[in-house]
């Protein structure tokens, strides 16, 4: 039977077969898997990186659908990400959840990673965008590293529908 008719042709790659030294490559673009936990299940985030004109990595780090990011994975992100322009991170709500990071966890991970711009995502509907931004503003002082990034022109904000980022 000929391909088509709504039948997808997929070439799936096992994320755990790739590392910082052997990333998934699409042209000059590289993708490095980052192991995380979604409750008790192993899940993966992604370092999406490319080299700039100086040969240094610039990246977007996507860590969503997770409840815990190990120290080892944080170190992987910091080592393999180069200059991290954007961090997109799971931040479901203010209160704890068994399979998703809450705001406090996300801000703690964001501080350790140190991206120029942090975007909280995978947010539930119990707070408005404005209320989440207010929460961030009121609590940013607990995270001196993030406060310093914002002071230097970076940002920590809730993501929103239609957001486009690039590095």
Give a concise summary.
By secondary structure, this protein is of the alpha/beta class.
Description:
With 167 residues, this protein is an alpha/beta fold. It has a domain at 71-83 and 95-159. It is 24% helix and 29% strand. It is built from four helices and seven strands. It has helices at residues 71-80, 103-113, 129-139, 144-151, and strands at residues 24-26, 29-38, 41-51, 57-63, 83-90, 117-121, 155-158. A seven-stranded mixed β-sheet has the order 1-2-3-4-5-6-7. A hairpin with a 2-residue loop joins β1 and β2. The chain is globular and about 45 Å long. The chain starts with 23 loop residues before the first strand and ends in a 9-residue tail after the last strand.
Main beta-sheet strand count, sense and barrel state: 7 strands, mixed
Radius of gyration: 17 Å
Helical fraction equals 10-25%
- First and last CA, distance: 42 Å
* Bulk shape: globular
Alpha-beta content class: alpha/beta
Helix and strand pattern: EEEEHEHEHHE
- Spatial strand order of the main sheet: 1-2-3-4-5-6-7
What is the number of helical segments per DSSP (H or I, 4+ residues)? 4
The total count of strands amounts to 7
Percentage of residues in DSSP E strands? 25-35%
Describe the structure using short key phrases.
single chain; alpha/beta; seven-stranded mixed β-sheet; 4 helices; 29% strand
């Amino acid at each position: 039977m000929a391909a088509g008719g709504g039948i997808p042709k997929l070439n799936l790659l096992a994320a755990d077969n790739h590392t910082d030294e052997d990333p998934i490559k699409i042209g000059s673009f590289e993708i490095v898997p980052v192991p995380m936990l979604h409750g008790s299940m192993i899940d993966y985030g992604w370092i999406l990186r490319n080299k700039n004109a100086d040969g240094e990595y610039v990246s977007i780090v996507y860590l969503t659908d997770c409840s815990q990011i190990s120290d080892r994975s944080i170190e992987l992100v910091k080592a393999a990400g180069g200059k991290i322009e954007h961090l997109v991170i799971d931040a479901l709500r203010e209160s704890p959840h068994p399979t998703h990071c809450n705001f406090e966890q996300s801000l703690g991970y964001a501080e350790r990673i140190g991206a120029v711009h942090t975007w909280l995502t995978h947010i539930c509907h119990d707070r408005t965008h404005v209320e989440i931004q207010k929460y961030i503003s009121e609590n940013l002082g607990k995270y001196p590293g993030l406060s310093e990034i914002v002071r230097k022109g970076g940002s920590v904000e809730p993501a929103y529908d239609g957001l486009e980022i690039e590095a």
